[in-house]
What does this fold into?
Amino acid sequence: MEHLREPDDIVALAGGVGAGKFLRGLASDTGSFTVVVNTGDDITLHGLHICPDVDSVVYALAGEHDPERGWGRRDETFRATTELRARFDSPEAWFNLGDLDLATHLFRTDLLRRGATLTEATAALAGRFGISARILPMSDDPAPTMVETVDPDTGAHRTMHFQEYWVRRGARDAVNAVRLDHARVAHPAPGVLEALAAAPAILICPSNPVASLAPILAVRGIREELAAHRDRVVGISPIVRGAPLRGMADKLMPAAGLEVTALGAARAYEGLLGAWVVDERDRDLAPLIERELGVRVGITNTIMSDDDDAAALARFARGMIA
Amino acid sequence: MEHLREPDDIVALAGGVGAGKFLRGLASDTGSFTVVVNTGDDITLHGLHICPDVDSVVYALAGEHDPERGWGRRDETFRATTELRARFDSPEAWFNLGDLDLATHLFRTDLLRRGATLTEATAALAGRFGISARILPMSDDPAPTMVETVDPDTGAHRTMHFQEYWVRRGARDAVNAVRLDHARVAHPAPGVLEALAAAPAILICPSNPVASLAPILAVRGIREELAAHRDRVVGISPIVRGAPLRGMADKLMPAAGLEVTALGAARAYEGLLGAWVVDERDRDLAPLIERELGVRVGITNTIMSDDDDAAALARFARGMIA
It folds into this structure.
């Protein structure tokens, strides 16, 4: 599916769930935009190529997401995964694949096996979900985010895939480092750098800065592109009053040397931001952030209780670009 | 899962559904046996390696089959396939893959991708279903049965995979030939010839002789092994009073030059049979079959209304070997 689009799409950099919510607001506020999605948490399980963040964004934009669970499809069942776990004792069944979700993974994996790039497979997927926004993976190259952990019970050191740390182990290990070695040698997907160069605004979604955004920024040339156009870059803090709005956005921030505050999250993007949006309840942090990071700080409601809230937040963020 | 087994297992040659019913009877009648299963209808769809006959046999022996539908798992749902069909418009979604069934295909495909042979993957599958019988694919080599068809509407000639003819097109095309070229160059799976050579009895299940059994017999050396031991070979007619007991066992028989009778089915195994079991209602055909094919004909009830019927039929068939 090929989209006719303006050359000057707004670009949003996105992780998974938090981004999905925000992007629904952006979609209702603007016609055409491009999303560059983290693929550092992509993983192959049961031979299927799974892109958790791409799928969260696609499902959210299509209104097919499960708002309560926070990931996957709504009206989902888990019969195949339950069978893989119970009968087949599959060592990979710790990752819950819904039965509808499986259709997505089968569709994508089959396209990749037939020679499609991840960019092409993602465009096809988005097309099947009727999404008009352009969804780009950050890279067509495999770029798994690895986590160096210390088992809290045994003290054993391990380096594991991000999903294993996040989902299988429930983020319960101490983290010594988040390794983006693969992302650092990955090339940006076709169109990513061009979209960033031409974008009138680059929005950093309220996603986990370490788990979701750092992998995107580690891909060759992406950080430099943002730095070159920082006057057009607006980030939205995923942290409000020292805690994540949803999910585990606070996890890994300390391991990356970032305090879990709207200031700490902003520091993850030091040198890249023209503006930073914080929640009204973090109003008191605004002068400090402006002084420390030299960015304009916007203050608004960042709690997206519904799509209207998300649209208002997206509008506010866009408005930060003069 | 490795089985301890007697070297002199009974061997059954099996297609899918009809065989599954019979094998449930054999399992209740005898402890240890080996099943050599047709893999001519195996097909790769959505990148998954699907073995319809192997799975029918495994599900039946485990009591996990759907007796009404005649294929697949009981208590099955079809959410992933429905999604592949409706949303993804998948050109391969004409084959119904249940959600529980998908777990089987993911398990097997992943094993194959990691280097297991089909024999090994089948043994692992059977183990997960708690089956004590040894289930052997006829071959580890791909051996798709192809069908030369004539479209009844357009007159167009096509050569297609057996499953496409059988499932996608509902066996509605005229058939010029069933091609077993791949089976003819396939090597028997490890253990098949040895099992046949040592078997005190070789049972040909009441499956479609053209679609299910001919591919097995086409594999290198298998026909010769039966011919060498024909005194120990007993076949059970899938045809009663000129019609199949279930499924489409009559389909393809005319294309192979076989009349749809208990005699026609026996002719499919000409030179290979020591004995042939026909239904009581075909009692009148017995003398003709004995004379024409030079085999002993056993007459019993072959309609398997329940497992007891199937056990009685299996016992009867074994009893045909002196």
In short: Residues 177 and 256 of chain A are 7 Å apart (CA to CA). DSSP finds 13 helices and 14 strands in chain A. Chain A touches chain B through 25 residues (CB under 8 Å). The mean pLDDT of chain A is 94.
